[in-house]
Amino acid sequence: GIQVEQSPPDLILQEGANSTLRCNFSDSVNNLQWFHQNPWGQLINLFYIPSGTKQNGRLSATTVATERYSLLYISSSQTTDSGVYFCAVELFAGGQNFVFGPGTRLSVLP
Amino acid sequence: ETGVTQTPRHLVMGMTNKKSLKCEQHLGHNAMYWYKQSAKKPLELMFVYSLEERVENNSVPSRFSPECPNSSHLFLHLHTLQPEDSALYLCASSPGLLTGELFFGEGSRLTVL
């Protein structure tokens, strides 16, 4: 089955710093999502991005489907950005769609 | 109104209890899912429903029993659970079966004593 990897597994930042999170996947995918899991456990949708670049405030994401990776950029990080960031890929057909990566745990220090 | 709501948010139960988790989606989606998230483990897909019909069961023990009375509601009935079943249970929905943007509820944190 498809493998989804995320790096780094853990990241500690000072408030105001920028960061880049990476998601690699081993096969072609129909789509890709980024989520932020807050300290209370809720998974919040950040981007639904099969290819190209999208921006939402301080966050942006780029997916290069032909090279099988996606990047999530966080600029001017805030303590509320802390939590776990997951990417999830949607397969074209069959099997267990919505395969999740293991996540990147981000801690933003004041 | 939140797109996907789950109740209760927290649940503590003994191994002989029977309880249920409830999920409701207000997005007009056709597919609903139960995921389990244990400490330091990846998200595990438990059940998939499309238009109220179960289409996938990933070898989940029978002490977990799902119910989908309509396309907006999903339940997870719990019976004679084990302490290792303590986890965060997440409900999600998507426009189509295993396709489209996935939306999650806030989760139900279960502790089995």
Can you describe this structure?
The complex is a heterodimer of chains A (110) and B (113). Chain A has 110 residues and is mainly beta. Chain A is 0% helix and 56% strand. Chain A has no helices and eleven strands. Chain A has strands at residues 4-7, 10-14, 19-25, 31-37, 43-48, 52-56, 59-64, 69-74, 83-90, 99-100, 104-109. In chain A, the strands form two sheets. In chain A, strands 2, 4, 5, 9, 10 and 11 form a six-stranded mixed β-sheet that branches. In chain A, a hairpin with an 8-residue loop joins strand 9 (83-90) and strand 10 (99-100). Chain A is globular, with a radius of gyration of 13 Å. The model of chain A has no long low-confidence stretch (mean pLDDT 93). With 113 residues, chain B is mainly β. Chain B has strands spanning 4-7, 10-13, 18-25, 31-37, 44-50, 53-57, 64-70, 73-79, 87-94, 103-104, 108-112. In chain B, strands 2, 4, 5, 6, 9, 10 and 11 form a seven-stranded mixed β-sheet that branches. Chain B starts with a strand and ends with a strand. The mean pLDDT of chain B is 91. Chain A binds chain B through residues 30-31, 33, 35, 40-45, 48, 86, 88, 90-91, 96-98, 100-103, and chain B through 33, 37, 42-43, 45, 56, 58, 88, 90, 92, 94, 98-107, 109.
Structural class by helix and strand composition of chain B: mainly beta
Gyration radius of chain B, rounded:
13 Å
Any low-confidence stretches of chain A, pLDDT <50, length ≥5? Answer: none
Main beta-sheet strand count, sense and barrel state of chain B: 7 strands, mixed
* Proportion of strand residues of chain B: over 45%
Strand proportion of chain A, as a percent range, falls in over 45%
| SSE order of chain A | EEEEEEEEEEE
- Give the end-to-end Cα distance of chain A, rounded to a whole number of Å: 41 Å
Tally the helices of chain A.
Answer: 0
Overall, the morphology of chain A is globular
Rg result of chain A: 13 Å
Structural class of chain A: mainly beta
- Largest sheet data of chain A: 6 strands, mixed
The arrangement of helices and strands of chain B along the chain is: EEEEEEEEEEE
Distance between the termini of chain B: 33 Å
